[in-house]
Amino acid sequence: MKNNNFVYKKYGNSKKVLIILPGWGNTRETFNYYINNLKNKFTIYIFDYPGFGKSVFPNYALTIDDYAKYIKNFIKKNNINNPYILCHSFGCRIAILLLGKYRLLIDRLIIIGGAGIRRKSIKRKINTYRYKILKKLKIFIRKEKRKEYLSNLIKKYGSLDYQELNDLQRITFKNIINNDLRKYIKYIYSPTILIWGEKDLSTPLKDGKYMNRRIKDSALITLKKGTHFVYLEYPFYILNIINNFFI
Fold first, then answer.
1. Is pLDDT of 98 > 90?
2. Backbone dihedral angles phi then psi of residue 195, each to the nearest 5 degrees
3. Which end of the chain is more exposed for a tag (fewer CB within 10 A), N or C?
4. The domain that contains 53 carries what CATH number?
């Protein structure tokens, strides 16, 4: 099913609705284990974001608000009341806006390795400054060599996610990661479980601890040796958490 460049899939036919918000670049296939084990208990909606899976990226850059408003309107259009939300990484940014900014009423929330807190380390600031300076120096490069020069800069200073995107997606990516959502986290009032990998380098454990302090009705579960993709590393354990929390 398509709507505004989002492709979504529906599983199950229960009165209880579970909305899964994947991470950046992930598709619904990465949650197949959970879908197959939960579709008899919930009606599940899961999305491919624009540019990933089967969703086409539009001819303009997006903001995190664009993603959140789409999900909000989708919930309203489909008359979904008090859903459960399971989100990972980038999907947490959407959930933070849905609950903290737009005050969407949901039953319960599970956040896995959630993004949304923007911290600029000294190293990152230096690399950003170097990249901007070197990018400006392209005017001194021969025109036929400029594309190669800029491509090499991106390879050196850009993340793997960033390197794989087209120009509009890169603007979108920067719009998203430069947006610090901390001011909305304290307005999340739904019961929340935070699941974090101890060795998560993308969204460090200190982010989970911060969210745990700011979300009043929340608990933090830390998984030793877990990385940013704990939901793939500990599927059986996390499925048990879902089954016991989403009741």
1. yes
2. -115, 125
3. N
4. 3.40.50.1820
* Residue 150 and residue 43 share a domain: no
Q: Which of 61, 95, 66, 84 is nearest to 14 (CA)?
A: 84
Looking at residue 223, its pLDDT comes to 96
pLDDT in tens, 111-141: 999 999 986 654 444 344 444 444 555 555 5
Structure tokens at 206: 């200190």
* Calpha distance 85→47 (Å, rounded): 12
Phi-psi region of 53 (alpha: psi -120 to 50; beta: other; left: phi over 0): left
Considering its fold, how many domains does the chain have in total?
Answer: 2
Average model confidence (pLDDT) across the chain: 84
Quick: pLDDT tens for 159-218. 545 555 667 887 888 888 888 999 999 999 999 999 999 999 889 999 999 999 999 999
